[in-house]
Structures are given as C-alpha cells and as structure tokens.
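Hey, can you fold this one?
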Amino acid sequence: MEAQQKLDHQGDRDSSLDFTVAVRAYNSQQNLPLILDKLRSQLGTQNISWEIVVVDNNSTDNTAKIVQEYQSNWCQPYPLRYYLEPKQGAVYARWRAVREARGKLIGFLDDDNFPDSNWVSAAYSFGQSYPQAGVYGSQVHGEFEVDPPENFKRIQAFLAIKEHGSQPRLYNHSTLNLPAGAGMVIRKQVWLDNVPEKLVLQGPVGKSLSGKGEDFEAMIHIGEAGWEIWYNPDMSIEHQIPASRLERHYLISLMRSAGLNVCTLRLTKVSNWQKPVIITRIIVGNLRRIIRHWLQYRGQYNSDLVAACELEFFVSSLLSPFSYFKRNI
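Sure. Predicted structure:
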C-alpha cells in the first residue's frame, strides 16, 4: 500500500501548469510503452509547463508496473504521474484525470491513441489562439490491423475517426456534430464549472457499450454554457483499430448503442417544452431515413456490412425515445 501511494503521487505539487496529458489506461501493458515513448519525444514544448497523468482504470495486467518502471528512469523536465481509479468505467477515469490534473488545459488520450510528435505543442497553441474554445478535438486517423470493410468511411466516425481536412472548423453540439473524446482537449475550469459529475451516460464499462456517448454528453453541457467546440487539424493522432472492432457483431452493437442514446443526448440541457418537438423530429426523421435506406439497400444487408450498420443506427435512433423514457421512469 505504501509503495502504491508513492507511485500514485510521484511528482505531486500544488503549482498550476499550462497543460496536462491524461492517459486513460485499462489493461494497457502492450500499448502504454508506445504511448509514453511518443509523449517522451514531444517536440516544441520547451516553453510549455506540462505533465503526463496516467489513470489506471483498475487494470488486472502489468499497467502499474510499466508506469513505475518508466518513472524510475524518467529524466524529462515534465513529471509522469500515476493514479489508480478503482471504479471501472470511462466516466470515472475521465473525472479522476480532471481532478488530479494540474494543467489549465487537459488533453485526453486513450490507451490506443498514438499522438504525433507535435501533439502537445499544437494542443497548447490552439488553446491560446482560440480563447472561446472550451473543448477542441484532434484530427484522428485510423490505424487498422486488418482492412476495413468497403465504404467504411461512411461510418468511421463511430470509431472515433475524425478527418475533417486541414483547416480548423467549429462543431455544432445541437446536432451532435462533435469531436471524439479520444484526443480532445478541455479547459479544466470550464469542465469543472459546467459538467455534472454524475452524467446520464456512464461510458463503456468492460465490454458493455450501452453507456457510450458520455463524452458527447459532457461536451453538450459545455456548448450549452456558451463555449465553442472546435476541430484542430494540427493535433493529429493515430487510433489503433484491432480486427475485433471491425467484426460484424461489434460494429452492429456499437451502432445500436449509439442510436439508442441519441434521444438522451438530444434532450440534454433542453427546456421541457422543447422535448416533445425534438422527440417528434427524432421519430419522423429516422422513419424517413429507414425508408430511404431500405429502398436503396434492400436485399444487400447481409453482404454490405456498412449498410447494415447504418440501418441499425437509424432503427435504434428511432427507438431512442423509448430508451430515454425507460431511463427516466
């Protein structure tokens, strides 16, 4: 226990920093060394005070040991800190990172995100240039273990792949047009002031995807508070996509979970009088999408995985008001 506490608080100080990189790790012994090596090799950070915080979401492998080994040989001017978050779930790890971070800006990486060599400097610079940005996301490319299915680009955003070109652009939280949680940067105080600690969606827990959408929910709270949400193409990361996430069962489950949470997200922070209008739009809009999609792809759903995923999302979105009412009974 004493050794664990020492590991948790190595380099802990009260002073405020410019930037925190928060890595959420769960059974990350394979990828974590690669991520830490990339963070140790960041360029253009000489004039930035920053740190790395690893939040271990109750791993059962050697994640903690790996961080400890890196800490024992850490010669960088920025500290590497470790915290164990025993409550499993993305939202708990995210909040633990926010609480422990000393940076005014916090950049989040998952344990399958490999940042480019200038990611930290690009993230910090964007925050200085866009002071009204409460949240901004990375350009996220997919690094696939196997070739994705044909026409995969139509659904790649559901796997946190965000490729919107070389120019910054505003997102629109009211239409759920938002950056991925992987690679997003937040202003710590904006998050603390506007994001409830207990969100409706709790994020993935183990293999369950039913609570996915927690990052979108948090960003909606920030957007509704008047803060802008941006895409920063200079922050580039590679998202590692294993073969298992391209299997039919996983993709259909992912689309179903995303669709069933549409109504919950669309009704976040809206007035009661707006809710019937939004629910009606969800039902009517998705009925139209289902009909158009079926007319175009009927007979192809067994052979066209992307089309099957799109239909699953539309049907699940149509049913999402019932999921919303079930949560709120």
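Strands lie at 17-25, 50-56, 80-84, 103-110, 113-115, 133-144, 169-170, 185-187, 228-241. Let me know if you want another pass with a different chain boundary.
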